[in-house]
Amino acid sequence: MSNNTETRKFYTPLNLKRCVSAAGRQFVGITTQGKFWNVDQTVTTLEGGKKVIHCTMSIQNREDYINAICGVRPSVNNEGLAWARVSFFDKLADRFANFVQKHPNSIITVTGALQLGEFTPKDSTTPLMGVNISADDFFFCRDIEAKESGSAGTQSQGYTPAAPQQGWGQHGSSTAPQQPQQGWGQQPSAPAPQQGSYAPPETDRQGFQNLDDEDGELPF
């Protein structure tokens, strides 16, 4: 009997689907699960009164899947990690901020809309393809025990990655990404970008129309 010493790869739980809103706008819906990092200290009120709070979540070994659905491949590190910036808006922002106070070290499931866009890290001149999620809901899964919260540990029989270093997943550490590349990953646009986020163009090259920043609603 042979010994299998190959390290098993961890794949972040992820489901993507191409969606069309009631207004006919096309976007990629996303459901993913993992630990959140780098939560903004407070909920920010944007111009026009919209509220937002951000965090970071990792997506590991899913770049092929994202590319197959969106036609755009996210940049990953040598562990296959892409750090996604997750944005929660309005009542959901308040709910997430309150949740973090009670469960600061936990696993959540996030649903929403996926975006991809280029950004350039401060310590590099090479543009990378970043991941952004405009959340429409989140769900508590479980708290992480102290022994699991190090650089690596079990995460539902998987892997808990180290906190993101300088780059897309680290708020304020990268310049604003440029407009997204052609593909489904452009939909929908996020309201008024913060540092480290980005705003897709009003209309992409396929004719998909992005949400108006004043709309205040995701296309679900």
Could you characterize what this model shows?
- This protein is mainly β and 220 residues long.
- The chain has one domain: OB fold (Dihydrolipoamide Acetyltransferase, E2P) (Beta Barrel).
- Helix content is 10%, strand content 32%.
- It is built from two helices and seven strands.
- It has a five-stranded mixed β-barrel with strand order 2-4-5-7-6.
- The longest helix is centred in the middle third of the chain and has 13 residues, at 90-102.
- It is globular and about 40 Å long.
- The termini are far apart.
- 38% of the residues are buried.
- Residues 150-159 and 165-217 have low confidence and may be disordered.
List the helices and strands and how they pair.
Blueprint: E1 14-20, E2 26-37, E3 44-45, E4 51-60, H1 63-70, E5 81-89, H2 90-102, E6 106-119, E7 128-143
Parallel strand pairs: 5-7
Antiparallel strand pairs: 1-2, 2-4, 2-6, 3-4, 4-5, 6-7
